[in-house]
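Risk register update: the risk of archive-format incompatibility is retired. Evidence:
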Amino acid sequence: MRHEKNIILFDGVCNLCNRSIDFLLKRDKQNLFYYVSLQSDEGKKLIDRYRIPKETDSVILIKNGKVFTESNAVVEIGRMLPFPWNGAVVLKAIPQACRDGVYQWISRNRYRWFGKRTSCRIIQN
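Archived output:
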């Protein structure tokens, strides 16, 4: 496993998640992130290694050994991107409970709204 980069764990069958990864791949010019699907063997090992609850249904960022989930992961990932995307840090002004509530609402409906792949995406970093 590569740990020199920030690791993004994502739902490899979710169309919204995969579109988000496409968005990041286009903007990650400094190659800051290592992308791993939650369903992969490597993803499962990372979940165990960082003691992330197995039922966590969220994008997960592992940065310097610290785990970020839900809206905190989105904000932290945005913060690391170039301008104007690093402006996502202003979302920290919104209480986390509100940010996570919106995140969870979208997450609960993501398959219905955006669809689901029949197989998990694998990214070669």
